[in-house]
Amino acid sequence: AEEAPSAAAPADKEGASSGEAPEATQAEAPAPAADKPPTAPAAPAEEAQEEGSEVAPKDDQAHAKGKAATAAPEEAEKVEEPPPAVDEAPAKNVSMLGCHGPWCDMVDRFNSLFDTNDPAKMEKALLIYGEWPEDKEGSHLEGLRIAVTRDHYFEIPAEKIKSELKEYLPRGMFKWTFGNEYKVFRAPTKANGQELVLVRTGTMTFALGWLRRQLFWTTSVKPTKEGYTFPDSTVEEFDDCHDCAAELAYTLKQGGLIGVGDDWAITGL
Q1: Cα separation of 223 and 202, whole Å?
Q2: Mind listing the pLDDT tens digit for each residue in 242-262?
């Protein structure tokens, strides 16, 4: 089984990674009949307008009849029109400036918190806009996955982002910045559970020093399953790296983990 991409898969050898009705037309009720006699003969029953429809002025009755005669074919043509292009997914592996797609409102809201690099706001972003597997006690099993080599990573559960990252981000040991360039790395299909992977480019810094890095590797880093390698990464050894090319990969699914509903959720980062 293919493992989901990390929070940010390193992009090159020197790289590192930091692994979303029409307004109902209000029908107007026909005006009550006046008490005085009508000034013009009533229209035949077959020409009477449907209840709730707009009434044309008397001088335009002939024009209204002409429109009514062609209304049905026009409506039939509209039904056959394709959906608006804004709902279509961008082409795979094509770089685009800004996020494009029906999931982007959610992604932009997530980024407004995650990009602050404030551990408390980052945790809030994962808990609000993400859905993560839980154990029997309700604790999250997954969250932010950070690749340190092409096949090794460490992972912080969503509800522990604040407590874990406050040891590293404020002290400059970890740092990342992601811009406004995106691409669709993997389109949703039945084979991948209808999950879409969106990639955002940027840079990342590790500044742990030799001793702390060795301790971190021993206690926190683990290998990927079944020899999986993070896309675009060629990094073989975990080392300090300053402003190296990196990618932030969002795994997105409409309806969340169980695929129910229209709202998009982040299911992997």
Answers
A1: 24
A2: 999 999 999 999 999 998 889
The pTM for the full model equals: 0.66
Dist. CA 72–CA 20, nearest whole Å = 36
| Six token digits for residue 158 | 């969503």
SS3 at position 248: strand
Q: Looking up tokens 């982007």, which residue turns up? A: 104
- In terms of Cβ atoms closer than 10 Å to its own Cβ (0-12, 13-18, 19+), residue 132 is buried
- Per-residue CA distances from 1 to 20, 226, 227 (Å): 25, 9, 11
Question: Over the stretch 17-75, which tens digit does the pLDDT of each residue have?
Answer: 444 444 444 444 444 444 444 544 444 444 444 444 444 444 544 444 444 444 444 44
Q: Are 104 and 252 in contact (CB under 8 A)?
A: no
**How many other C-beta atoms can be found within 10 angstroms of the C-beta atom of residue 41?**
6
Under 8 Å CB-to-CB from 128, ≥6 apart: which residues?
110, 113
Alpha carbon of 236 to those of 15, 43, 110, 253: distances in Å? 10, 85, 31, 31
C-alpha 247/C-alpha 233 separation (Å) is 9
Helix axis angle, 104-114 to 119-129, nearest 10°: 160
